[in-house]
């Protein structure tokens, strides 16, 4: 037999595999997932007895609704192929269906858990709606029933509000990217709206899936103004509803949550006006009565009475002050006379008038009072002070 090359043999085996098996579906457990920068996904499909390599090309991986994880039980659809460089066969996976749960449900649960762990659903991140918004940005399909229902209820409840419609696809390929881009464009608008409403009418889970995409949820979370999400009917819950600041069950309810009923508001305003008028009237009557009572007081009805009364009091106080001053002066004068008599009685000069004298020794300009003859010697100059005048003499002789 003529030998063949490895390449020829490999191609023959590959051709045989393709013809023999065609498209196959394999139930298995995923393990050994790797994701290189190319975007392809490499994995192993196994059961308790065997395993086969598998590859998900990037174009297929980008269309998967959920993330592939080790340990997942799946049904993979594709075809068997041979990898010539290694001489191993592998399953080229074109479709993946989780076992026991739908593809969309699994994707919903995975993204829900991821966003919840990151805090995108937390109440502390929720922004409060303005009480009376003036401008609203509406992200929806311009041809759907949602825009009609929303605008009809909105303008019935509140007339003076400006609505800017940001038209987008709300289902199908590319719709999620359009919705996310429209929400992110809010920060670049010349006049920023007070509120953003993201809405669409009801539909199947597949129809509403764009509002479960991660790009839409993160755009809602990052929006600088409050966001109302109203997707589908009452029973429908999208992830964008959970991320939004306010969730409305329907587009009509979104309009009701956004603005008050103008007729009811005007009625409340009229009630407030009535209460304010009544309160002001009561206050005016009370103030008038109080003013009349004040005006009736003597200080206002006969203002000079208080002046005259105080003038009389001043006169009385002045009279009493003069008497007190006179009495104090007399007492002081008496005390001064008594003190003067006592001073005269001990004044040495007063003794001189009775024939006594004071003798001082003269030493230049100084004078020393002499109380003992021993203080003097012959020839000392002395000065004698009499009741009237002084006598200067010299000592001739001293006796003790």
TrEMBL record:
Under the heading InterPro entries, the entry gives: Exonuc_VII_L, Exonuc_VII_lsu_C, OB-fold_nuc-bd_dom
Gene Ontology cellular component annotations, sorted alphabetically: cytoplasm; exodeoxyribonuclease VII complex
Q: Does the keyword rRNA-binding apply?
A: no
Q: Which GO terms describe its molecular function?
A: exodeoxyribonuclease VII activity; nucleic acid binding
Q: Name one GO biological process term.
A: DNA catabolic process
Catalysed reaction(s) here are:
Exonucleolytic cleavage in either 5'- to 3'- or 3'- to 5'-direction to yield nucleoside 5'-phosphates
Q: Which UniProt keywords apply?
A: Cytoplasm, Exonuclease, Hydrolase, Nuclease
Report if keyword Cytoplasm is assigned. Answer: yes
Q: What's the chief localization of this chain?
A: cytoplasm
EC number(s) given by UniProt: 3.1.11.6
Give its localization.
Cytoplasm
Cite the record's note on assembly.
Heterooligomer composed of large and small subunits.
Described function: Bidirectionally degrades single-stranded DNA into large acid-insoluble oligonucleotides, which are then degraded further into small acid-soluble oligonucleotides.
What family name appears in the similarity comment?
Answer: Belongs to the XseA family.
- What protein does this entry describe? Exodeoxyribonuclease 7 large subunit
What organism, scientifically named, is this protein from? Mariniblastus fucicola
């Amino acid at each position: 037999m003529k030998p063949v090359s490895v390449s020829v043999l490999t191609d023959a085996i590959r051709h045989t595999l393709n013809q023999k098996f065609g498209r196959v579906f394999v139930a298995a457990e995923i393990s050994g997932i790797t994701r290189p920068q190319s975007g392809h996904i490499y994995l192993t499909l196994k059961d308790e007895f065997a395993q086969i390599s598998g590859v998900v090309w990037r174009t297929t991986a980008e269309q998967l609704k959920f993330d592939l994880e080790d340990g997942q039980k799946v049904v993979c659809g594709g075809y068997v192929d041979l990898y010539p460089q290694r001489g191993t066969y592998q399953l080229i996976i074109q479709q993946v269906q989780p076992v026991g749960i739908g593809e969309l449900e699994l994707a919903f649960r995975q993204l829900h858990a991821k966003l919840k762990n990151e805090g995108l659903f937390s109440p502390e991140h929720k922004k409060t709606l303005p009480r009376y918004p003036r401008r609203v940005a509406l992200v929806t399909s311009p041809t759907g029933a949602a825009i009609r229902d929303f605008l009809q209820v909105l303008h019935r409840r509140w007339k003076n509000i400006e609505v800017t419609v940001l038209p987008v696809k709300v289902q199908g390929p590319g719709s999620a990217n359009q919705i996310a881009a429209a929400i992110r464009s809010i920060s670049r608008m010349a006049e920023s709206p007070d509120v953003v409403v993201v809405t669409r009418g009801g539909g199947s889970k597949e129809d509403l899936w764009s509002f479960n995409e991660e790009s839409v949820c993160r755009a809602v979370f990052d929006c600088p103004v409050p966001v109302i999400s109203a997707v589908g009917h009452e029973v429908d819950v999208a992830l964008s509803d959970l991320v939004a600041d306010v969730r409305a069950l329907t587009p009509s309810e979104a309009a009701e949550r956004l603005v008050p009923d103008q007729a009811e508001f005007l009625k409340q305003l009229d009630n407030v006006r009535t209460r304010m008028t009544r309160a002001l009237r009561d206050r005016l009557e009370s103030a008038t009565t109080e003013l009349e009572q004040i005006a009736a007081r003597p200080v206002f009805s006969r203002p000079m009475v208080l002046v005259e009364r105080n003038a009389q009091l001043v006169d009385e106080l002045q009279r009493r002050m003069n008497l007190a001053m006179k009495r104090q002066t007399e007492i002081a004068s008496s005390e001064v006379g008594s003190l003067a008599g006592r001073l005269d009685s001990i004044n040495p000069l007063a003794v001189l008038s009775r024939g006594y004298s004071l003798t001082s020794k003269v030493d230049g300009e100084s004078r020393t009072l002499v109380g003992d003859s021993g203080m003097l010697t012959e020839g000392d100059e002395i000065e004698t002070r009499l009741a009237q005048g002084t006598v200067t003499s010299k000592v001739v002789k001293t006796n003790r």
